[in-house]
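Page 37, continued from 36.
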């Protein structure tokens, strides 16, 4: 924002305001509070209600009146009448009679410059306060430093003089950067603009203190850990990407430089495939849903082999849409590999962590999508085809010479082959006869040996086997019980023909049978 210009009209308006406040005692000791009642005459120039109607709710409130006197003072409209009188007395371009809107009872019309100067004076009179929020969109100018403070409830533009900023950095030891949580002290400021410059509101920062890591970065880090815990950072990286895709989908801004960089890189690669563009905003709160829709549309095209999401560099707030949770989950679960090229070398978004490949520039993304240099590959393929053609020609010529050599004397060649075959046949027959004779002699010798062994076995059986049988019969007869009975022994048996081997058994049996060598007699045991 350019520094405010001081004009003669502005000095006269400020002097008139000062005299009005000095002449009106009701304004002494009033806190710096702006209410709808105080600004209603001024707001009447832009469509506000008149003072005699019901007061509007406060527009800006930076301090709160405590006592009843302060409430009366805060609701006072003593500034309006002196300001209107001053505008009527200060030399200015006279408004023509009937210059206002017919039938409109609002005051005016007032010159824009005087109204802007009065608004700046009122804004500067508000109480100086301290604000805490996220520092984003930090940019340096020659004389001023501009940035924004944001939180979940809203945002406010801020500006600081370069000298004050250098003193803040020197005193704090840490240079504030995008994403930091900071506390600033200052007040409202307004640049009224001119015929060639635009007006602007900002919070004039005089002091700044770093409060810690920004909530935005912390939120992004928590989401990154959550996605990593669910395993969504690895889905895309495990997908197989084609080396030479036939169709590439590109999601980028329609008028951005990323589009030209991708086209130039693909032209340098010599790729002649098909490009499917999915134009979507890449910087605002509507960008993430639009990118998600574009991803779904490209994924529904069955011929798309890889998708490139490209955008140029920017601040953390500009790239915030690429940290959207819905976008990251959509990319992680997409069935087509996604190449992310968001920002420059130092920028890192959640999309870079989720995508299959993270590239630093759109040019790098195009080279990653097309894995080979098509022009070089065509040259190499042409050279390989030329070498293959040369080798084929040589092979055909060598075989033609050999065939020509063979065709000169086919009969001689056949005679040579016939003689060679006859010689081999004679050798086979001679070898067969020799082998048969040797096998016949060997078989005869084996038959003689077997005959001799058979004769010796038969003679042995005729002489040795009877002697063995006689010896066994003699041993068997020596153990025959009948032979024992013939020698005078008697076998005592029970009536059931069971042998009795003791006297006790015989007394218990009572009646027994006595077996002799020539017969059996019954007997009874009597006495002891």
């Amino acid at each position: 924002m350019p520094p405010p210009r001081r004009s003669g009209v502005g000095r006269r308006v400020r002097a008139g305001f000062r005299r009005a406040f000095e002449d009106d005692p009701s304004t002494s000791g009033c806190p710096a509070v702006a209410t709808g009642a105080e600004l209603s005459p001024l707001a009447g120039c832009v469509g506000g209600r008149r003072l005699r109607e019901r007061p509007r709710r406060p527009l800006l409130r930076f301090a709160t009146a405590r006592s009843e006197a302060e409430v009366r003072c805060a609701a006072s409209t003593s500034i309006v009448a002196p300001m209107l009188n001053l505008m009527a007395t200060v030399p200015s371009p006279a408004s023509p009679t009937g210059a206002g809107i017919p039938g409109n009872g609002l005051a005016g019309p007032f010159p824009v410059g005087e109204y802007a100067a009065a608004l700046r004076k009122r804004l500067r009179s508000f109480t100086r306060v301290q604000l805490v929020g996220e520092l984003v969109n930090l940019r340096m100018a020659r004389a001023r430093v501009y940035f924004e403070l944001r939180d979940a409830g809203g945002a406010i533009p801020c500006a600081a003089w370069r000298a004050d900023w250098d003193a803040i950095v020197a005193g704090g030891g840490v240079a504030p950067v995008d994403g930091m949580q900071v506390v600033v002290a200052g007040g409202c400021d307004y640049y009224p603009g001119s015929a060639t410059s635009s007006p602007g509101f900002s919070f004039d920062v005089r002091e700044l203190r770093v409060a810690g890591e920004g909530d935005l970065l912390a939120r992004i880090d928590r989401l990154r850990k959550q996605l990593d815990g669910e395993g969504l950072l690895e889905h895309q990286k495990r997908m197989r990407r084609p080396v030479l895709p036939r169709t590439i989908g590109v999601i980028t801004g329609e008028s951005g430089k990323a589009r030209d960089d991708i086209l130039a890189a693909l032209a340098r690669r010599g790729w002649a495939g098909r490009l499917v563009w999915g134009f979507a905003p890449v910087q605002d709160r509507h960008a993430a849903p639009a990118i998600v829709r574009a991803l779904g549309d490209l994924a529904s095209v069955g011929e798309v082999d890889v998708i490139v999401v490209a955008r140029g560099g920017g601040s953390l707030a500009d790239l915030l849409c690429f940290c959207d949770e819905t976008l990251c989950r959509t990319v992680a679960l997409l069935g087509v590999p996604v190449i992310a090229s968001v920002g420059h070398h130092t920028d890192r978004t959640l999309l870079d962590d989720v995508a299959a490949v993270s590239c630093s520039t759109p040019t790098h993304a195009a080279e990653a999508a097309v894995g080979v240099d098509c022009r070089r590959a065509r040259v190499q393929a042409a050279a390989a085809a030329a070498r293959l053609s040369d080798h084929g020609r040589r092979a055909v010529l060598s075989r033609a010479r050999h065939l020509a050599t063979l065709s000169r004397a086919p009969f001689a060649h056949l005679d040579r082959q016939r003689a060679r075959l006859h010689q081999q046949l004679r050798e086979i027959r001679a070898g067969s006869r020799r082998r048969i004779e040797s096998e016949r002699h060997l078989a005869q010798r084996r038959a003689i040996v077997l005959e001799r062994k058979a004769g010796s076995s038969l003679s042995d059986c005729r002489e040795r086997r009877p002697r063995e049988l006689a010896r066994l019969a003699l041993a068997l007869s020596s153990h025959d019980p009948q032979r024992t009975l013939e020698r005078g022994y008697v076998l005592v048996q029970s009536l059931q023909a069971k042998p009795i081997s003791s006297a006790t058994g015989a007394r218990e049996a009572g009646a027994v049978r006595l077996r002799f060598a020539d017969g059996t007699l019954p007997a009874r045991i009597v006495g002891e």
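The chain has 16 helices and 13 strands. Flag for discussion at group meeting. The chain has a mean pLDDT of 76.
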